[in-house]
Amino acid sequence: MTNTSRHERDEGSPYAPHTPEEIDEMLAAVGVESEADLFDVPAAVRFDDDLGIESRGERELRAELSKTLAKNADLTEFLGRDHHTHYVPSVVDDLSRRSEFLTSYTQYQPEITQGFLQALFEYQSLLVELTGLPVANCSMYDAATSLGEAARLAGRVRQASGSTVLIPEILHENKRAVLENYVDGTELEIGTYPMDDGNVALDALTQRVGDETVMVYAENPTVRGTIEERLTEIGEVAREADALFCLGTDAVALGLLEEPASVGADVVVGEADALGLPTAYGMGLGIFATRETFLRQVPGRLVGASEDSAGKRAYTLTLQTREQHIRKERATSNICTNQAWVALRTAMHIAYLGPDGLVDLASQCVREAESLAESLGSLRGVKAPVHDRHHFREFLVRTDQPSPAIARDLETNGFAVHVVDDHLLQVCVTDVNAAETDALVEAFEEAL
Amino acid sequence: MNHDQARYGDDDRYEPLLSEKDTTSVDVVGRSPTSNQNSSSSGDVDETSPLPDDLTRDSLELPGLSEPELARHYTRLSQMNWSVESGPYPLGSCTMKYNPSFTEDVAADPNGAVHPDRSDGTIQGTLELLYDLEDYLARIGGMDAVTLQPPAGAAGEFTGILVAKAYHETNDDEERSEVIVPASAHGTNFASAAMAGYDVVELPSGEDGRVDLAALEAAVSEETAALMLTNPNTVGVFERDIEEIADIVHDAGGLLYYDGANLNALLGQARPGDMGFDVMHYNVHKTFATPHGGGGPGAGPVGVTEELAAFLPSPQVRKHDGHYELYEPERSIGKVHGYQGNWLVLVKAFAYIARLGDSGLKDAAAKAVLNANYLASQIDYEIPYGPFHHEFAATAGERDAADVAKRMLDYGVHPPTTKWPELVPEAMLTEPTEAESLDSLDDLAAAFDSAMGDSDADLESAPSKTTAGRIDQAGAARNPRLSWRALSEEK
Known about the structure:
The complex is a heterodimer of chains A (about 450) and B (about 500). With about 450 residues, chain A is an alpha/beta fold. Chain A is built from 14 helices and 17 strands. Chain A has 3 domains: about 60 residues, no CATH class; about 110 residues, Aspartate Aminotransferase, domain 1, CATH 3.90.1150.10; about 260 residues, Aspartate Aminotransferase, domain 2. In chain A, strands 2-10-9-8-7-3-4 form a 7-stranded mixed β-sheet, with helices on both faces. In chain A, β7, α10 and β8 form a beta-alpha-beta unit. Chain A is globular. By secondary structure, chain B is an alpha/beta fold. Chain B has a domain of about 250 residues: 3-Layer(aba) Sandwich (Aspartate Aminotransferase, domain 2), CATH 3.40.640.10. Chain B has a 7-stranded mixed β-sheet with strand order 3-9-8-7-6-4-5, with helices on both faces. Chain B has a 3-stranded antiparallel β-sheet with strand order 12-14-13. In chain B, β10 and β11 form a beta hairpin. Chains A and B meet through α2, α3, α4, α5 and α6 of A and β1, β2, α2, α3 and α4 of B.
């Protein structure tokens, strides 16, 4: 057979390498006449029809999908709310796409997969440095599912009658929706506490916390971009009630804001994909870090250091008796496939930045937000930031005019912002769109 | 096959950790000017902290490598890692097939890099692709509606069981408290059902490795919410009685859940919807060739019959006058992911399905089944259950399957899944996939038989040609060291 026809043929899978002669040889070895004879499927449930999916050539398909995605409008996004974008250097794309990483499986044979295991061990180690907590797993799906897992962990280690997880009244609605499903099969209830000008209302929280509280969840930065000012006190409120203090954050914020361990966090969740993964329609990487005490309650995979037969340091998946393939219905979580490849990218990006680069990037998130808020706030009929707090990347904007109409106008002029309610917008600025802020302010002024 | 894996390192360790290369600590409070070449800002960087000291951390200690050093570190790590492009990777139940290169280029299209909170009108391309992928998956599974939100197979199971739960609750049938799972099922089935709050009833396998109908009759009751089933099952054998199984479960008022881990055997040949399944998940990182990335990301879309469509997670995509829009299904269970799941994975799955089309999908299944059967015919192992399809569970008999597997590493292949399912003693669950050529299958067969023919001493001292020698697993668990901080504190 010739190679040129193989890739263009319109029959069969282009990725099955068999020649007709080989197929005959294999059928003969098995002792059947045809491939169909190998299927032990009763006629009543066989599918003899067509699926109606047309096969396209590679070149054709690339052109088709490029055309489809080109239907997306070309907008400059000032969007955040749990899906943040920073510039990802080419070296991260290039290295992470090496097929030895990309096309490998979970490391069930550690001796032949040391490379990925070490990369995941390094990812865990970076999260330990950033959070100050001694245990970080090697990934969850995203920030919302990490929060769900944290609540379930709290329910297991802190049993109380009427067990309640306390979350802020102002939380990403998607995150709350995911949390509700994660506690649906447990005894846990969800309670809320109020916010005060973008930060936790500490007195109100103190009143809401009781014997039934198993976890207090707070964020830094919050979904509205405010930086929380009383984290240590929130941690103390939780501890006095013998509840866990769970802190939500992200990989960039961790480089600058208060270290979670130093404010008494028991569990840290959040998005690590802010580094390593550009905008990807909400695809994420969930952080999960905790204290040593809860090591055997951690969901998901852990990579540990050990030794090989030559006495050299080597890495392996460890403490697997927590996991579903061994513990079945008593596992700490059902998670199996995780976000390992994104964790690889995040670790690369952090190592690329180094401590100075990360602090610079995080500082830029504060400065740019402050500066853009000031510019927008100087427009007539606009208040920004709405909350009298420090901000990280994003902030609320109150408009005298209806905000949806302003957002539509901005969209027409090539900018996307969040509509929070009838007179509130939310704007997010990072290194990626910082150069466009003047243009945004101009478009904003026109929209008013 | 001869294979010696790369092995960088010195007497104590293989390639040093990032932290052992270059780590510095910076003071965040009162930070002094620095000159990191990879810093995000350039030119006149303001080095003072932008926040009051009590809102920042004191210091930060991290490795920071120059770009050339970083490239070399990760290239070395990659060379110390096996992948499906390195050689056969016949892990049973994992479907490690070739991941077509062009799908990476499609996923990297900058026009697809959009934020999920944009208005529908500005992401018509994204929504169109998702809508069409839902349609493809529905056709393949014989289902009426599909959600793409679950980020992995286990998340799909959890979603599917929540949908079943919501369905029963809507029918005022809230007393159903049990999910039946065959003993040989994937561990995730048990864990997902338990996560949704159900008691798990384990169903013993029949003598032929299939569901024992009498045992199923005995297990179902008015407590039954669902039966979770893999078909072909985890020893590769098709549940021939599937129609009766569906009747038994449905007559008891339960729903039938299809675990899509083994769907590669049936692409275009048979469809879960036609067998009576009400809910299913697809493992797109298995069946639809998206790269597994060392453990993820995957995607676990869930398909349902029309009766259950209103319960799917929010949002769903619909088409209205040629315009795509997101909407919340009437009785939606809510959300299982912060946004809409693993976009980059879904795009690649779309590209793969569209590349193969009808004839390619049917052929993929046929060749996957042919490859498994051919490989089985070439090895000198007992295979207790059959006829099998895309995978088979050989037994290592008197020998330790894990040792045989370690020895196979020295013959230049990745071994199969070992010691699972427990139905087969010392199991070696083998799934070569359609992507292996005849020559490659012969190499695999030779590795199976050579390993089995080697002495106990050879097996126990294996592997020797991999980066690391046999790793002390028990030691890793007994003395957990999960970060470089833990390693340095030990010294």
